[in-house]
Automatic annotation (TrEMBL):
Family: Belongs to the pyruvate kinase family.
InterPro entries the record matches: Pyr_Knase (IPR001697), Pyrv/PenolPyrv_kinase-like_dom (IPR015813), Pyrv_kinase-like_dom_sf (IPR040442), Pyrv_Knase-like_insert_dom_sf (IPR011037), Pyrv_Knase_AS (IPR018209), Pyrv_Knase_brl (IPR015793), Pyrv_Knase_C (IPR015795), Pyrv_Knase_C_sf (IPR036918)
Claim: Cell division is one of the keywords in the record: no
Upper classification of the organism: Archaea, Thermoproteota, Thermoprotei, Desulfurococcales, Desulfurococcaceae
Record organism: Ignisphaera cupida
GN (gene name): pyk
Top EC class for this record: transferase
Official protein name in the record: Pyruvate kinase
GO terms for MF: ATP binding; kinase activity; magnesium ion binding; potassium ion binding; pyruvate kinase activity
Residues of the Pyruvate kinase C-terminal domain: 364-459
Pathway it works in: Carbohydrate degradation; glycolysis; pyruvate from D-glyceraldehyde 3-phosphate: step 5/5
Amino acid sequence: MPLFTKVIASIGPASSDATTIFNMVKLGVSGFRINFSHGSPDDWVKYVDAVRNAENRVGRPIALIGDLQGPSIRIGKVEQPIVLRKGDSARIVFGSEARGGDEKVVPMPVKKFFDFVEDGDILVMDDGRTRLRVADVQADYVEIVALTDSVITSRKAVTIYNKEIDLPPLSESDINNIKFAIAHSFDYIGLSYVRTENDVDILRDYLRRFGKEDIGIIAKIETKSAINNLDKIVEKADAILVARGDLGMNFGLEEIHSLQTRIVEKALEHRKPVIVATQLLESMVEKPVPTRAEVVDVSTAVEMGVDALMLTGETAVGKYPLEAVSWLIKIVNFVEKTTLRNEFANISRRSRTNIDELRLLFAKGVLELTEDMNAKLVVFSLYGNTAKRIASLRPSIPVYVGSSNKSVMRKLAILWGIQPLYVDSNNYDEGLQKIIQKAIELGYIGYGDLVVATYGLKEPRQRIEIQRIVS
Ligand SMILES: Nc1ncnc2c1ncn2[C@@H]1O[C@H](COP(=O)(O)OP(=O)(O)O)[C@@H](O)[C@H]1O
Ligand SMILES: C=C(OP(=O)(O)O)C(=O)O
Ligand SMILES: [K+]
Ligand SMILES: [Mg+2]
């Protein structure tokens, strides 16, 4: 299981059974994403139960991420995939369902689409595999011509190339899905198609209004506006996700690497957790072994010092979900072992103008003391802040974090290098001892080890204790 860079898996028909989810947790998955654009609440409840059962059986906190549809246009349900050859024409009609198959009718439940789209627009779908040209626009249907061989399946997002349809950041169904996520103790909510920092504020307001402000907001960076407003969005969000699927539809594919680099750097600069997602091991949707290009792509993302990598179609609908997880972990482990430890530290500890919190410097001090002594680091963290600061410094040693606060431990599960443990104690000193005991039980700490145990005090002061494990 990777010690530092974490793995998040999207759940879908290919991975929704309890055994697969349990096996993914055993392999080392630290978080699961449920995409609210697909399936139904009845499906999602089963996914949640399977994740929480696996979490209990393995005894390791797991993060649950609920991914909102956001201001995206998605087609409705088609019973049969619609197969188009390049040059074929088809019709997009207002409605939420269609037979599909030979009936080349694509249902479009978003009324505004028909007012917004214009002759000559290029529609991009399915992470860019489908490209259609708008040939004729009518009030409640649009004629299109396929520019590529395409297979159109249910609930696919539609990008109108170089245009951003002005839909509200959260639809009625998004708000229902926020309530669902709260009712089922999700740890994070993914905000798709973020355009400005105001979109993050709007979601934060809902969470506050519904009394669950501690749910983390993951801003998914995938639109041109988001890139233009990147700094402010990163400041407001709790975590950042490089959403390469839609990013590659709103920008040229050739721009992906530099966009990813820029987004990751910005997140590191603001010390926000950052996740890279989509098509990491895309060929494993069909094959049991990744391509060389995919291995290099994953390695590059790990070397950028991201907190986590997220599998999407590979585990949601792929034929080899478990192999995709084990290949991802194998590549992560190799790169972590071979990349000089201080490489990651250099990425994230370069002194940046915005480092002015004393606490961050304390955390840096404790961490570097522990690293230099080749000791083990144990942190008691009621709210997770000390642990988050240490993770943002890209520690070269595992950081064992304990707290009685389940949801804090689950949120930390997808951060770099954090090994979260539950301990039922609300006081720091007793808590530190319990974490050390539990870490010994789990084999993380052995006799003879030097342990640095720490927690952040109210006033900016780090409490540090060093002990040798002798009995
Ligand atoms: N729960 C699901 N049920 C059916 N199909 C799904 C599900 N989750 C994902 N998929 C399929 O896998 C594709 C990639 O997954 P993902 O990236 O999570 O979705 P999207 O890109 O549509 O937001 C989706 O477009 C969809 O075709
Ligand atoms: C993660 C992404 O979002 P979604 O899968 O919802 O399109 C993406 O676009 O890469
Ligand atoms: K998206
Ligand atoms: Mg996607």
